[in-house]
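Subject: design request, 233 residues
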């Protein structure tokens, strides 16, 4: 590609960004009266509304962690559940994956979700707990055969020499499941992010965004009562 073509592409992209301002559509209101005492309960309400509104994959969230050098890292994964009494967001990962190793070294994380169709964002920060091996095994067995086979392949985030190498490992994993339907990936682990603070953000085309922030009455605590406050957009 020539330098002129690259410049034209940059100009086209810049114009596309200008021509497509975000959230210029009808968005739901966020009534801040009578909100739940716990952010986990409100998270569940918003997630239910997202499913009913037809948001694609609303249970897919972004998990952010920190590596041993203090550099942030982030990736999307599937939310497995919400523990309302414990203000927890449940997800699973391979303990030997980068995120698993990062959580082992620094068991604090953040979860973010954005649903463009509704113009809604949720941000949660807190402490991460590891479930028992029994609970992790039950979660693994509840998954589809394709999901279990993919986990049994292992080697997540390691260099892949070829697609043929993956296909061969996947066939071996499926054969293993056929021979032993109760086989469990050794690194499969269930985690729960216990919220310390959370923010619910409802976008507005006129930029009159509504933001509600939840925080523990005792800063840094993972138990106790919550306080709520509105934030400037």
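Subject: RE: design request

Done. Sequence follows.
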């Amino acid at each position: 590609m020539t330098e002129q073509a690259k410049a034209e592409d940059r100009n086209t992209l810049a114009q596309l960004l200008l021509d497509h301002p975000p959230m210029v559509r009808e968005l739901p209101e966020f009534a801040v009266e009578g909100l739940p005492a716990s952010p986990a309960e409100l998270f569940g309400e918003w997630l239910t509304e997202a499913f009913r509104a037809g948001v694609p994959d609303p249970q897919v969230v972004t998990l952010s962690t920190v590596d041993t050098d203090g550099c942030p890292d982030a990736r999307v994964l599937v939310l497995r559940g919400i523990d309302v009494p414990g203000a927890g967001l449940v997800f699973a990962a391979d303990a030997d994956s980068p995120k698993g190793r990062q959580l082992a070294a620094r068991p604090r994380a953040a979860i973010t979700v954005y649903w463009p169709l509704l113009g809604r964002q949720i941000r949660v920060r807190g402490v991460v707990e590891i479930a028992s091996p029994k609970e992790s095994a039950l979660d693994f067995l509840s998954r589809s055969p394709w999901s279990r086979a993919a986990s049994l392949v292992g080697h997540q985030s390691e260099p892949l020499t070829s697609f043929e190498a993956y296909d061969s490992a996947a066939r071996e994993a499926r054969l293993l499941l056929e021979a032993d339907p109760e086989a469990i990936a050794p690194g499969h682990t269930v985690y729960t992010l216990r919220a310390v603070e959370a923010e619910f953000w409802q976008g507005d085309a006129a930029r009159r965004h509504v933001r509600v922030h939840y925080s523990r009455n005792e800063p840094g605590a993972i138990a106790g009562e919550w306080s709520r406050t509105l934030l400037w957009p």
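Helices lie at 3-19, 39-52, 98-105, 133-141, 145-153, 163-179.
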